[in-house]
């Protein structure tokens, strides 16, 4: 499937056209990191082995998890209201594009990733769906590049919004 041919929402298309019209220069200047002594006291929960993601997928995601990878989902992975369900299917196409379109330039990738994360930030019912879709996209992928790009987007999402308590430990596991 050519993920570069998947449709995108009009709002995202306008953002991409707008950014393409001007030279996209990063406003980030690299500086040396501060010298901070790290205190690593983080540990995994003791019961983490009781929460395999496969159990969560079989219990919560059920039939949705069985949909083929690399193709647009026919239905959301989680239970959603109809309007959120439509948006979730649009987001999945964007995730496929982000993960599998090697022709994306750096600024296009950044705008696409930001748009996906923004959907999770502004629409809390979609957060677990987005995280589950990313797990679905990366789970057992043969293409290392697609999996790594999926993991990158998953890390970006997790740095901006948290999963529900039901998904927290299975996703951590």
From TrEMBL:
Q: Name one Pfam family in it.
A: MyTH4
Q: Where is the MyTH4 domain?
A: 68-173
Superkingdom is Eukaryota
GO CC field: cytoskeleton
In Swiss-Prot or TrEMBL terms, this protein is called MyTH4 domain-containing protein
The organism's taxonomy opens as:
Eukaryota, Metazoa, Chordata, Craniata, Vertebrata
């Amino acid at each position: 499937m050519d993920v570069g041919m998947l449709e995108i929402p009009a709002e995202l298309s306008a953002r991409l056209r707008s950014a393409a019209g001007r030279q996209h220069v990063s406003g980030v200047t690299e500086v040396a990191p501060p010298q901070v002594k790290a205190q690593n006291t983080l540990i995994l929960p003791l019961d983490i082995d009781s929460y395999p993601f496969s159990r969560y997928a079989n219990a919560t995601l059920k039939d949705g998890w069985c949909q083929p990878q690399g193709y647009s989902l026919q239905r959301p992975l989680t239970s959603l209201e109809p309007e959120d369900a439509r948006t979730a299917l649009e987001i999945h196409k964007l995730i496929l594009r982000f993960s599998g379109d090697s022709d994306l330039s750096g600024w296009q990738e950044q705008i696409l990733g930001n748009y996906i994360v923004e959907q999770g930030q502004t629409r809390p019912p979609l957060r677990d769906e987005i995280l589950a879709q990313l797990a679905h996209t990366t789970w057992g992928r043969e293409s290392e590049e697609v999996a790594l790009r999926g993991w990158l987007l998953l890390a970006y999402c997790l740095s901006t919004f948290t999963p529900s308590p039901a998904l927290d430990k299975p996703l951590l596991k």
